[in-house]
Amino acid sequence: MAITLTQIRAFLAVKSTGSVHAAAGQLLVSQPSVSAAIASLAREVGAALFERHGRGVRLTESGEAFAPYAAQVLGLLDQGRNAALEAAHPENSRVRLVAVNTAGEYLAPPLIQAYRQLHPGVAILLEVGNRATVFERLESRRADIGIGGRPAGRALAGFPFVGNELIVVGREVPADLARTPWLLREDGSGTRLATERLLADLDLGSAGAGAPELLTLGSNGAIKQGLVVGLGVTLISRFAVASELRSGTLCEIGVAGTPLTRPWHVLFPSAGPRRPAVRAFGEFLRSARGRAVIQKLL
């Protein structure tokens, strides 16, 4: 099978953009060259990978099946290039970190700062996303190391990193939780899943009379602003509201079953080599110095 990197890059660009025209712009090549790469890749695979959809294209079932392998090929090669550069210049290593939103917003920056004080030549490139994004980036090898929830059923390895308490928070304690709007993160968020389970346990999860209004605000920042103006209550990581709880801007609301403990894990792809710089950063995260950085945040 003579599949080329040009074909794989064209395939992934069309997948992400939904059109040959947009993929050509992303890759800075002509549309005919993208079309030719996709056609030749389909011949090599032996199955159609895209089908027409409106004004663009979408993956066929075969394309969906092929996509994670294609992404992993490019991710592995990128990791290999970083390994080669690291071997030649170990003092200038690069680590790609992906973290779930709350950990990425509140834990990762001070941890990166502390690590760079020890290793100033190491570049830590941070991407922040929801739980699904973290798992996808690691499995496709587009990230070296991650911080997220327990990777049950995924091709990932790791270790528990820090306890993450989820608490119910609002501007004030409401008289009736069933009549108070609940502010939710976006689909794919681990915190949203935990909120939905909590509401079900409290018999507040069913639509209809007596069920609270559910408002999706999507990000920790938007949710916190909503809390401050009295829009409702939410289930959120203690790390995300530590400052507001200390100042009294927000208050913790005692709700049966809370706080929920959902430990974050340091995550790696389960197979393949792990570069020295990645191992070293992972060890720092579980070290006494790393734990001391985290404790100062609460």
Q: Overview of this structure, please?
A:
The chain contains eleven helices and 13 strands. It has helices at about 5-15, 20-25, 30-45, 60-90, 100-120, 130-140, 190-200, 220-230, 240-245, 275-285, 290-295; strands spanning about 50-55, 55-60, 95-100, 125-130, 145-150, 155-160, 165-170, 180-185, 215-220, 235, 250-255, 260, 265-270. The strands form four sheets. Strands 4-3-5-13-6 form a five-stranded mixed sheet, with helices on both faces. Helix 1 (about 5-15) crosses helix 4 and helix 2 (about 20-25) packs across helix 3. The longest helix is centred in the first third of the chain and has 28 residues, at about 60-90. The N and C termini lie far apart (about 55 Å).
Can you summarize this structure?
The protein contains eleven helices and 13 strands.
Set out the fold topology:
Layout: H1 5-17, H2 20-27, H3 31-45, E1 50-53, E2 56-59, H4 61-88, E3 94-100, H5 101-118, E4 123-129, H6 131-139, E5 145-148, E6 156-162, E7 165-170, E8 182-185, H7 190-201, E9 214-218, H8 220-228, E10 234-237, H9 238-247, E11 251-253, E12 260-261, E13 264-269, H10 276-285, H11 288-295
Parallel strand pairs: 3-4, 3-5, 8-9
Antiparallel strand pairs: 1-2, 5-13, 6-13, 7-10, 7-11, 7-12
